[in-house]
Write a structure and sequence with these properties.
The protein is 55% helix and 0% strand. It starts with a helix and ends in a 10-residue tail after the last helix. By secondary structure, it is mainly α. It has a single domain (4-59), classed as lambda repressor-like DNA-binding domains (434 Repressor (Amino-terminal Domain)), CATH 1.10.260. The longest helix is centred in the middle third of the chain and has 11 residues, at 41-51.
Length: 69
């Protein structure tokens, strides 16, 4: 499961805000957040850059956010 819901809530964002960040619809974003749809690489990069964390952190492969340089 992706960490995007946690990142969204920690930053007081709505699903529609997140959808704008990754250039998709709120409905599609909701499916990604619920695990009903996969996130593509480009959207993952947009999220990592926006939140200044590694893609591995978003994907749940590490518990260390490792801020981007």
């Amino acid at each position: 499961m992706y960490r995007i819901k946690d990142l969204r809530e920690d930053n007081d964002l709505l699903q529609k805000d997140m959808a704008q960040i990754i250039k998709t619809t709120q409905q599609q974003y909701s499916k990604i957040e619920l695990g009903k749809s996969d996130i593509d690489g480009q959207k993952l990069i947009l999220l990592a850059k926006h939140f200044n964390v590694s893609a591995d952190y978003i994907l749940g492969l590490t518990n260390e956010p490792r801020k981007l340089k």
